[in-house]
Write a structure and sequence with these properties.
The chain is of the alpha+beta class and 397 residues long. The chain contains twelve helices and 13 strands. Helix content is 43%, strand content 22%. Strands 1, 2, 3, 4, 5, 6, 7, 8 and 13 form a nine-stranded mixed beta sheet that branches. A four-stranded antiparallel beta sheet has the order 10-11-9-12. The protein is globular, with a radius of gyration of 21 Å.
Amino acid sequence: MWERSLVLSAPGKAILHGEHAVVHGKAALAVALDLRTFLRLRPCGEGRVRVRLPGVGVVRSWDAPRLQALRRRFAADFDESKSPSVEQLDTLKEFAGIAAGASAPESLATLAFLYMCLAISAKYGDVPSVDILVWSELPTGAGLGSSAAYAVCLAAALLTACGAISCPLKEGESTARWTEEELNLINSWAFQGERVIHGNPSGVDNAVGTWGGALRYQSGKITPLKRVPTLRILLTNTKVPRSTKVLVAGVKEKILKFPAIMNPVLDSIDAISQECQSVLEAMPANPSPEYYPVLEELFDINQHHLNVIGVGHPSLDRLCRVTASHGLHSKLTGAGGGGCGITLLRPDTSPLAVEAAKRDLCACGFECWETNIGAPGVTLHSSSSLNAEVLHTLSES
């Protein structure tokens, strides 16, 4: 029986440069956002396993012996190196009363929890009787890695509860992180959770959630940047829905139609990612304002390129215009066609200018957060290290 109460968190992610070009073998830079998903794990009496995700309306609980019996049906088939099978997922859907073709966030979140709980306990011990509560600062479906942050938190919590990894938080410490070997294990199981939710993910989002900082992704290879400064940004959600699949197909069509025009644009986006990586790795931890003009210029150039390849949107043009009127530089992040944009904030940007920009963005009907990129990966927290809102949410019930 697990006997401690734990709180842990994992960051969301944004693409700094390289979106869409990455589909065509170019480099992309993904960064950890300091908007986090928090998970509280505590012992659950009466031999039950309980999970609550108030953000997507999930409140579920099961008898641990029923889960043990279900796990025994295909215990030999669980392996973090293999994709979850259709048969396994169908069995879990039937067990949880989830309709066959269900794709709503609450159905996928429940399915990912069940799969990870059974698979991890099959490999490392009994299904632990635990009560898990998850709350997130990240919006869902906005391309900000909310499902990966959830999967990373679940993997770390379940592996800790099963004794597969240590509990590194010592008395008197405010936060703690796992060893590199343990982070690798967390990442591999979080990837399984992402496979349940997305089918065929790249692995970038869960890697950012696990290690934090910034990563370079190219042709399936993930490389952490050597050093990453913490940079302040505004993250803005235009709330314009879009289909990543449709946008990716549109770019491909343009490349096939105009290869001599479009391929150099992709090469230029690739060069922007490389240049940005060089600049970031040369910056000190708390960079002074003179480092920023080149980063701002790269934002501007890349945003124009993204419009050229057809993934811009009037809402994103408006976001760029509004922030430019306050002397700030923005670009879309992720799929484009609406969705989110990021705005770089220099250390010397006045709080009044930031507030004025936020006010004008909100007046457009957008949602806006002031946050950091280059945030730490999955982390264990003592109560004293949590802000009032997180404490209040996690202490309710």
